[in-house]
Structures are given as structure tokens and as C-alpha cells.
Design a protein that fits this description.
The chain is mainly β. 11% of the residues lie in helices and 36% in strands. It contains two helices and six strands. Strand 4 and strand 5 form a beta hairpin. The longest helix has 6 residues.
């Protein structure tokens, strides 16, 4: 098991996701923090790599739901602002996005 593979993924409440990694390290993410760093084409220009989402527009009390695995390499979720197209790879999450 590599350090990029989670052992457990816990959605302790709608504002927080915790991942226990294969190497024993733990990472905790807020819904607002994940939304601000969303890597999808709506949030980051595919041609330039420039972030299109203004992080100051993301409310601190944002929540997430419908947390789901994407294959064996990523997570996806639906945010309370309606956004749901982000795919967060385990590698990016482990590296702190």
C-alpha cells in the first residue's frame, strides 16, 4: 500500500473529511477548503491552468455530501453551493492539493 492510498475515509460531519493514509498519516479537509481548490475545468482553465474560481467567494460554512470514490484513485462530492464536478485524486489530496 502506498502513501497515496487511503486506509479509511471518514465524513465526520458535512463540513469535514478525514483520511487515514496507508503510511499512518492523517489528513483533514474542510468542505470550504476543498471547494476553493477544486481542480475541475469549471474552476481551473484547461488551456492556461489559471484558477477561474475566486476563493473569496466560497463561504466558510460550506458543506459537502454524496462523498464517493472515483475508481481507486480519487474522491468526488457535491458541495452545498451546487458544485459537483471536482475529482480530487488521492495523490493531490495527500500532497495537500
Amino acid at each position: 500500500m502506498t502513501s497515496f492510498q487511503p486506509k479509511t475515509i471518514t465524513q465526520s460531519n458535512p463540513k469535514r473529511v478525514t483520511i487515514l493514509w496507508g503510511d499512518g498519516e492523517t489528513s483533514e479537509y474542510t468542505a470550504a477548503g476543498l471547494r476553493r481548490l477544486c481542480p475541475c475545468a469549471q474552476c481551473v482553465s484547461e488551456s492556461t491552468g489559471v484558477r477561474l474560481l475566486d476563493p473569496t467567494t466560497v463561504a466558510e460554512d460550506l458543506t459537502q455530501g454524496d462523498l464517493a470514490l472515483v475508481g481507486n484513485y480519487a474522491l468526488t462530492m457535491r458541495f452545498s453551493d451546487g458544485h459537483s464536478t471536482g475529482i480530487f485524486t488521492f495523490k493531490a489530496l495527500r500532497k495537500g492539493l
